[in-house]
Amino acid sequence: KVVRMKPKVSTSFSCVKTVESVYTGGQVEWFKDMAFTLARGAVNVVRKGEVISMLKEEEDQIISFTLAGSDTEVTVVTAHKSGLVRIWDCLVVEQPKVIRTFRSIHSGAISVLGLHTLSGSHSGTVLATGGTEGTVKVWDLTSQYFTHNFRTSSTVCSSLTFHPHKLLLYGGFSTGGLFCWDLTNSKLVQSMEAHFSVVTAFSITPCGLKGVSCGRDAVCVVWDLTSHSKVSTVPVFSPVEGMVMMDSLKVVLATGDKLAVWDLNTPAKISEAEMGCDVTSLRGQVDTLHCTTSDHNLLTISQTNLAVTGCTVGNNDEVLDLVLMGESNTHLAVACNSPAIRLYSRDTWNCVLATGHTDTVLCLATCPGDTSIMASGGKDKEVRVWRLEQDRLECLVVGS
Question: In sequence order, which residues have a C-beta less than 8 Å from that of residue 388 and are 6 or more positions away?
């Protein structure tokens, strides 16, 4: 009698690593090596692609936030659906704690916030909040009281900027309005009319004498901040979603799927780089740029040559296929609802995007004789062959 042995099947597995969703669209702010992302009504604190802590209030969603920090203090201010504003101490980022809560007095939701530290005789920290009903309010967080209320005929406030050397506040709105208020006497200094669509950013030169505004009407406007008069209007031929001032009147603009460096003195475009997908926001740090894309990636970019130096995939969405690559399976290639292939290093779990396909990648396969060679097929009716080269995928052949 032949005794058939039942095959042994392992049913007990332990999870070693989880690559989860950390960003699903919306606002993102950066501080040092951390990204603060708005997701599912909470703020995730992300470091190296992992959520290390979360700012969250039960049954009270966060709709917008801002942050300011130094080596000794990290403050995050969140605006909630209930109309409350909460101030968080995030110096120990793994253990954020609420230090104060107050009601915003806005009749609508808060769309944008801004923190500013005053110097000189007017020392302290002030908070500006812009609402969807067209008002801007200013709060003295040091003395803990409400100081200013500015009303406009516009609707949603889209940007807030404090002057670096004067007690002036600039507010941009969705109707194209741009206003300057004096915080010493609570009066409107100037209504700066130039834009016909949403003002997405307003930046001031380090000297404080010139300012640049940009918007979705595809123009940048240079302003003389002494008289608050328009100096020039520069067409950039694409809606601008973000701007970072580099030096003098040299700016980096987020237009479509590109980052472009413009010299507004000339004016002329100096250089540009493609990000592979539409850029939805742009922020700057010392010698570094950060941007978000419409497929929910967080990119770190060198300010000198606009090269991508780091990538955090915010949301992989539906995973369609994946393969292990390299000797000893050192890398993991993932195909998602995106034209870009994700390549993860299994040592550090850093991610690099391999672009080339123009539509969703559906399938992946490695060569049995050489696992550093991979083929990919997509909805664009193309088959591409890739080679793993120093933590990157290099396209060798394209067939269609």
Answer: 325, 326, 331, 343, 372, 373, 374, 394
Place of tokens 């700066």: 192
Work out the mean pLDDT of the chain and round it to a whole number.
92
Q: 303 with 252: CB under 8 angstroms?
A: yes
- pLDDT (mean) for 164-182: 95
Pairing of β 210-215 and β 199-204: antiparallel
Model confidence, pTM: 0.88
Tokens 């009749």 correspond to 107
Mean pLDDT of all residues in 249-269: 94
Q: Which pLDDT belongs to residue 333?
A: 96
Q: Measuring CA to CA, which residue among 213, 301, 300, 294 is closest to residue 251?
A: 213
Residues 212, 33: Cα–Cα separation, whole Å: 28
Q: Select from 42, 64, 67 the least CA-distant residue to 55.
A: 42
Which one-letter DSSP state was computed for residue 197?
S
SS3 state at 363:
strand
Interval 329-345: pLDDT, tens:
999 999 998 899 999 99
